[in-house]
Write a structure and sequence with these properties.
GO molecular function, one term: phenylacetyl-CoA 1,2-epoxidase activity
Number of strands: 2
Order of helices and strands: HHHHHHHHHHEEHHH
InterPro entries: Aromatic_CoA_ox/epox, Ferritin-like, Ferritin-like_SF, PaaA, PaaA_PaaC
Organism: Ramlibacter rhizophilus
Protein name: 1,2-phenylacetyl-CoA epoxidase subunit A
Helix content: 55-70%
Bound molecules: 3-hydroxybutanoyl-coenzyme A
Pfam family, one: PaaA_PaaC
Structural class: mainly alpha
Number of helices: 13
Length: 311
């Protein structure tokens, strides 16, 4: 019965084992993974939009080629993650439906505008840098398909972060106007990137259970701190200042202290009222509708193929 299956499940989790799609799992485990993995997939797909706006405006063929590759990668990350979510008993259509109906979340960070070319470099450096921090521990997630999807995603994220940092180094070696453009982008993205790690642990309803089930390996606040500690020296190399007067090394803690994050702004964005939420969702809905003929043609072709083999 369920009692011994739960015992077996708990023993597997406690032994840091992997749960696979055919294994028995508590309904709540399935539900929270579906929630997180589908929202992660939505984040990747919506995440293509802010910097995708700059593909036709890239300053050189080299930058255009790199940006194209990165945006294409994000689309692929979305597909891996939708496939991982489907192993939990949902369909792509259901997940896309939830996103378009405003019922599913995606990462807050993609609801901010990309005002200049420097935003593309700052997104690579800070947003993908934060995504790496958040995704590396998920490679050790107890749910097999999710952990395995993360391995390749993390490899590609490193390229995303490095290309962003390199393009900022180029700009910082340029004119004063280019240097100002970078500093302006850092000023706009720094705080939303810190919030991207999720609410403080004390206000994080999913964390305790997620930690117990080996889904979340490091807490929101610990990952945020790790990101800040790793990024401060990089900002020095770049020659930009991080827009937080309270940011300073605390020898006693062995970490950087930092200022207060505006959680009202964060929850405002998460609940759909950020600077670009409506535009991002409308763009996704339009792309989905414009792409309906491709899906229909592919399905019709697949049916014909099937008929052929059945004869
Ligand atoms: N944006 C939007 N919603 C967020 C959020 C954010 N940055 N951070 C937290 N939330 C939501 C949670 O989804 C949850 O709402 P829900 O219960 O309706 O899903 C609520 O706020 C409370 O947060 P919790 O901390 O309790 O939720 P979690 O334990 O799930 O932790 C998380 C949040 C750290 C984002 C976790 O879900 C996670 O690690 N998700 C997978 C990784 C991910 O999505 N990373 C960001 C993707 S960006 C990206 O990778 C693209 C890159 O290539 C640029």
């Amino acid at each position: 019965g369920d009692a011994e299956r739960l015992t077996r499940f708990d023993a597997c989790i406690d032994a840091d084992g992997r749960i696979e799609p055919r294994d028995w799992m508590p309904e709540a485990y399935r539900k929270t993974l579906l929630r997180q993995i589908s929202q992660h997939a939505h984040s990747e797909v919506v995440g293509m939009l802010p910097e995708g706006n700059w593909i036709s405006r890239a300053p050189s063929l080299k930058r255009k080629a790199i940006l194209l590759a990165k945006v294409q990668d994000e689309g692929g990350h979305g597909l891996y993650l939708y496939s991982a979510a489907e192993t939990l008993g949902t369909s792509r259509d259901q997940m896309v439906e939830a996103l378009h109906a405003g019922k599913a979340k995606y990462s807050s960070i993609f609801n901010y505008p990309t005002l200049t070319w420097a935003d593309v470099g700052v997104i690579g450096w800070l947003v993908d840098g934060a995504a790496i921090m958040n995704q590396v521990p998920i490679c050790r997630c107890s749910y097999g398909p999710y952990a395995r999807a993360m391995i390749r995603i993390c490899k590609e994220e490193s390229f995303h972060q490095r290309q962003g940092f390199e393009s900022l180094m180029t700009l910082m070696a340029g004119t004063p106007a280019q240097r100002e453009m970078v500093q302006d982008a850092v000023n706009r993205w720094w705080w939303p990137v810190l919030a991207m790690f999720g609410p403080p642990d004390a206000d994080s309803p999913n964390s305790a259970q997620g930690m117990r089930w080996g889904i979340k390996r490091i807490s929101n606040d610990d990952l945020r701190q790790k990101f800040i500690d790793a990024t401060v020296p990089q900002a020095k190399v770049l020659g930009v200042t991080l827009p937080d007067p309270d940011l300073k090394w605390n020898e006693a803690r062995g970490h950087h202290d930092y200022g207060a994050i505006d959680w009202d702004d964060f929850w405002n964005v998460v609940s759909g009222n950020g600077p670009c939420n409506k535009e991002r969702l409308a763009t996704r809905v339009k792309a989905h509708e414009d792409g309906a003929w491709v899906r229909e043609a592919a399905l019709a072709h697949a049916r014909k193929q099937q008929q052929r083999t059945l004869k």
